[in-house]
Amino acid sequence: MHTGTMARAGQIINLAGTEPIDDPEYRYKMPAVFGKIEGRGNGIKTVIPNISDVALSLHREPGEVNKFFGCELGAQTTYSAETDRAVVNGAHTDVVLQGLIKRYIDVFVLCPSCNLPETEYKIKNGCIYHKCAACGAKEMVDMSHKLCTYILAQDKKNKKDGKKDKGKKDKDKDKPDKDEKKSKKKSSRDKDKDKEGSDEEKKKKKKDKKKEKKDKKDKKAKKSSSMQDSGTLDGADEDDSEGGEDGSNEDVSHGDVDDAGAMDLAVDGTRRYLKENPKATPDEIAEVVVNQQMASALKSQDKVHIFARAVITPDFFKEKQVKKHAPTLQKLIQGNSIMERHLIAAMEGLCVDKPTNFPVLLKQLYDEDVLEEDVILEWACEGRNEYTLETVDEETRAALRGEAEPVVVWLQDEDSSDESDDE
Question: What is 224-422's CATH topology?
Fold first, then answer.
């Protein structure tokens, strides 16, 4: 059994690496690490009772500190966050453990520039950096150490758990709203039952609304020579019908799923113009696309769908189509985040049959300054919504989001790194 446990448990020393610091006024302190040997024979092990106190003083995780012991000693380690119990297989003296802690502090805690323990990890592109709050330096740690694999794995796990927690919170947040809506609907139904003749009035209104909607569709059918299934905005039909009630959208409500033929005609017209005018400028092309959109009585946001469908083909990577047409896309979007969301939706629609193309398109559009980082991250945090095309069902959208995960993680890491640099 280990002796002198109580004495060592209260011992506070200067926080230092392999170079000792004898200054009694040194403000960075830590508890001396100590172990307690348990078991015998092949089952002998060293328990570290104050692992959390040591890790807290170093601003690191207890599991990481314990894992360092295992890496250096070539021993198996276990750490339970629930019981705060750290175990290193084998019998190891306090002198050995304290020596290892000093080496850990040298490599993973102290700033390489100012030698102060004011660092935190910043991880970008699979590399771990020290970001020092004292001097502002940003230096890479020794990536050849085995502990780096553990740190990267833990970072990935924490990000994954964070997304799950966020999704759960959003779900819980929406639940009361849903219950409230149900309650309101129920209350409304009860009131309607008490009012004589209200059911008949509701049926009449519904019938009139259907008739009005049918009349609009008939008018649109005359304008389009063919009605094929195509990618248009999900929920647009609902918006048009609402606009028709107050008269505000009556003359421009042509962007719903019944305008597939009009969209096809606009796409064909744009392709024809590009073929006949290979030297057209981005301004000229953008003007033609807008004219096609207006002539086809489509909504303003449909211009990005028209152009994307006209120029992006399965050979986009080989022919560098994104780079070639980026200036025109910028003209059509004009820095509008809503238009950027519609462009992402257009890319989803183009990648339904081959989801692996989607992250490549996303990254290229970001590299060419067509899509902003925050717009892509906003898309990544949401599910299927009003921007998503009707041709992209829930399962397909989830598959596309899965394929885009490496790009999203990369952007999140870059965003975190930029924020820390600004600080």
Answer: 1.25.40
